[in-house]
Design a protein that fits this description.
Elements: H1 2-21, E1 25-27, H2 31-47, H3 49-55, H4 57-62, H5 67-85, E2 90-92, H6 95-115, H7 117-122
Antiparallel strand pairs: 1-2
Helix pairs in contact: 1-2, 1-6, 2-5, 5-6
Length: about 120
């Protein structure tokens, strides 16, 4: 359970960094909405992303893995749509903002996962 909470907080921090750094990603709510949105992003990454990666496997192989960035971008845009459907004030302005936001989220997630690696290993 602690591993889930740590991953959830890493997702929330990565999402907050994307909102803070990327001008085309707008969030106008409180911190509870960021936590709910991080949960949505985590669920979409767990449920939809593997299917999307399977369907785009030839493109991922053809581009030597670079198409994964596009898959991450689509996941952020999908999270924006789901968030808006749930009345969470989170907007992604377009593909390029989502691309930059997904890159920021990936970097923050990698750095924070490296920092909390020992905690995550203990909780397996």
């Amino acid at each position: 359970m602690t591993k889930f909470i740590i991953r959830w907080m890493i997702n929330a921090a990565a999402l907050f960094a994307a909102v803070w750094l990327v001008p085309g990603i707008i969030y106008s709510g409180d911190w509870v909405g960021i936590l709910i949105l991080a949960l949505i992003v985590g669920l979409l990454n767990a449920l939809v992303r593997p299917l999307l990666k399977f369907l785009t496997c030839p493109l991922i192989i053809l581009t030597l893995g670079l198409f994964t960035v596009v898959v991450n971008t689509l996941m952020l845009m999908l999270a924006s749509s789901v968030g808006q459907a749930l009345d969470i004030p989170f907007y992604v302005d377009g593909f390029w903002s989502a691309l930059l936001g997904s890159l920021v989220m990936s970097v923050v997630s990698v750095v924070m996962s490296a920092i909390f690696r020992d905690e995550l290993k203990k909780r397996d």
